TrEMBL record:
It holds the Pfam family Aldose_epim. It catalyses: alpha-D-glucose = beta-D-glucose. The lineage of its organism: Bacteria, Bacillati, Bacillota, Clostridia, Eubacteriales. Beta-D-galactose binds at residues 180-182, 253. NCBIfam families: PRK11055.1. This is Aldose 1-epimerase. Its EC number is 5.1.3.3. It comes from the Bacteria. It comes from Ruminococcus bromii. Pathway: Carbohydrate metabolism; hexose metabolism. GO terms for biological process: galactose catabolic process via UDP-galactose, Leloir pathway; glucose metabolic process.
Length: 355
């Protein structure tokens, strides 16, 4: 029998009802999801002393998820990351998307997937799973094609959260989805992650950005740069304020090109909260992981869940995805989804303990 608990949350500003879906495993660990944005609201796992800690940032009320600009836990699409000036050309036709981040289109626009209420399905025959579904019409935030989108969350007894995205469109379009959870493995209220989290990234190359935070089109070795996380190191040791790339983003906000093998899933990153002993391994079918050190977070105690205040660098994000702004860079692997073809990607977040 499915161990999914469903409770009412709060209505949106449009009067839409929202709900919280909690998947609890046999050890008492749990993941809570919301149908607004098909979002991750909490991940509660044991630390080295056996105490349960919530290791993702979140909001206390629905308006945070609906209006704030952090995208806490959200399913992001149709295209995550930035599209320069909101412009691209597809099949000889020019498209102008809404510009919602300086001069760029970010994370799908103003009314993106993260701002919509998804249809949720809980099936007793599929234990520990919640399936979210969304119809995105032709022209939604400027994107072509009627698209059907599915996001499936499963949380098992080994404390593995599996996220599977799938989509199909009746026209050629762009599709590059991710989950935007903010991880603090010492607990979401424990403050900065820079000096008490170790991070390792399975990437020998990263993608530099310009002053508008868009990719330059280069793919650059991490060796001898602050972006070298090929061995575990404190997150703060990668935030070299003298580095021009770090200066552009006020921290790390960059795509790391994963060292892929022939296997379906590749280990993208490993992290550890030094105080809690909680570890995280991220496996993905994607070509890269966008690492964000939460450089511009500013959430007051009246908005953060459990009355938490979140300031600069309170978490890190491991956003598994295709290359940023790929539609405008012919040398990048494409993020174009052909008509009637299936988009499928999977990411696993595996939680453990280093005692």
């Amino acid at each position: 029998m499915s161990k999914v608990r469903v409770v009412n949350f709060e209505p949106t500003s449009k009067g839409e009802n929202t709900h919280l879906y909690t998947i609890e495993n046999n050890s008492g660990a749990s993941v809570t999801l919301c149908d607004l944005g098909a979002s991750v609201v909490s991940i509660k796992v044991p630390d080295k002393n056996g105490s349960i800690r919530d290791v993702v940032l979140g909001y206390e009320h629905i308006d945070g998820y609906e209006f704030d600009g952090t995208y806490f836990g959200a399913t992001v699409g149709r295209c995550c990351g930035r599209i320069a000036y909101g412009k691209f050309t597809l099949n000889g036709e020019d498209y102008q998307l809404p510009v919602n981040n300086g001069s760029n289109h970010l994370h799908g626009g103003f009314n993106s997937f993260s701002r919509k209420v998804w249809l949720a399905v809980v099936d007793d025959k599929v234990p520990n799973t919640v399936l979210f579904m969304l119809d995105s019409p032709d022209g939604d935030e400027g994107y072509p094609g009627n698209m059907k989108v599915f996001v499936r969350y499963t949380f098992d007894d080994e404390n593995v959260l599996t996220i599977k995205w799938s989509a199909v469109s009746d026209k050629d379009t762009i599709c590059n989805m991710t989950n935007h959870s903010y991880f603090n493995l010492n607990g979401h209220k424990s403050g900065k992650v820079t000096e008490n989290h170790k991070l390792k990234i399975n990437a020998n190359f990263f993608i530099p950005i310009n002053s508008n935070l868009n990719p330059t089109g280069e793919i650059t070795p991490v060796k001898n740069t602050s972006f070298d996380f090929t061995e575990p190191k404190l997150i703060g040791n990668g935030i070299d304020r003298k580095n021009e790339q770090i200066g552009f983003a006020n921290g790390i906000d960059h795509m790391f090109v994963l060292n892929h093998s022939d296997e379906e899933f590749v280990l993208a990153a490993e992290a550890e909260g030094i105080d809690s002993g909680i570890t995280l391994k991220c496996y993905t079918s994607q070509k890269g992981v966008h690492v964000y050190t939460a450089n511009y977070v500013d959430v007051s105690s009246n908005m953060g869940k459990d009355s938490a205040t979140y300031g600069e660098n309170p978490a890190f994000c491991l956003e598994t995805q295709g290359f940023p702004d790929a539609v405008n860079h012919k040398t990048f692997p494409t993020t174009i989804l052909k008509a009637n073809e299936n988009y499928t990607q999977t990411t696993k977040y595996i939680f453990g303990i280093n005692k």
